[in-house]
Amino acid sequence: MEYIQLTKENLEKEHICCAISNNNDIQVSSKKAWLKDRFDDGLVFLKSVERGKCFIEYLPAENAWNPLDAKGYMYIDCLWVSGSFKGHGYSNDLLESCINDSKSKGKMGLCILSSQKKLPFLSDPKYLKYKGFSVADRATNGIELWYLPFEESAPKPSFKECAKDPHIDDSGYVLFYTSQCPFNGKYVPIVEATAKEHNIPFKAIHISSKEEAQRAPTPITTYALFSDGKYISNEQMNDTKFLKLVNG
Fold this sequence. Notes:
Blueprint: E1 3-5, H1 26-38, E2 44-48, E3 54-60, E4 68-69, E5 73-81, H2 90-104, E6 109-115, H3 125-130, E7 134-138, E8 143-149, E9 158-159, H4 161-164, E10 173-177, H5 183-197, E11 202-206, H6 210-213, E12 223-227, E13 230-233, H7 239-246
Parallel strand pairs: 5-6, 10-11
Antiparallel strand pairs: 1-2, 2-3, 3-5, 4-9, 6-8, 7-8, 10-12, 12-13
């Protein structure tokens, strides 16, 4: 497999794996705009040259859009290999590249979000364990911070206090989200419109800066849905899924 790293110079002409439409698609344009502003923060997006979901995205944990105390670590936003790309060792290739790059940059290790049970859009805990990762911290909603230290003396990363017990004081449905995930560009407006049409109390909070993300009341900031103050899901929804959730 041949891989290519996205840069400011090639971003507009390359596909971004997690959304493979043209640049006029809101999912693509929102993600590329988010990426473009992150390259100066040290973000790396390494992907297959072939069209499909086969990529890794990571950046220094100090610049992660998540409430973490992980100074000196590299944080993996996303490691995604799916479809026909699965089963060929590409996940191992991408992770090994991240490890080598992180070591060359003087990092103490890697960290990544997962969960006690496999959840959509989060790395499989079984795969992480197989690759030598272990749990560094766990929020009360089951979201976990896994880490791979490069030396035994490396301190454990952790969630910030604001994210250890995900909850908010607002009633109704409240969604925290960022433009890191391209699907939000399409599906958040759909859920907003559906909630309005059916008179469902709903508020979407678009996290638009690293500082906001690092103060968020949830370890997951790409998409975190709350209901009457309780965290309920990190999975993007269309109108049908949202109404099914509301109607129980």
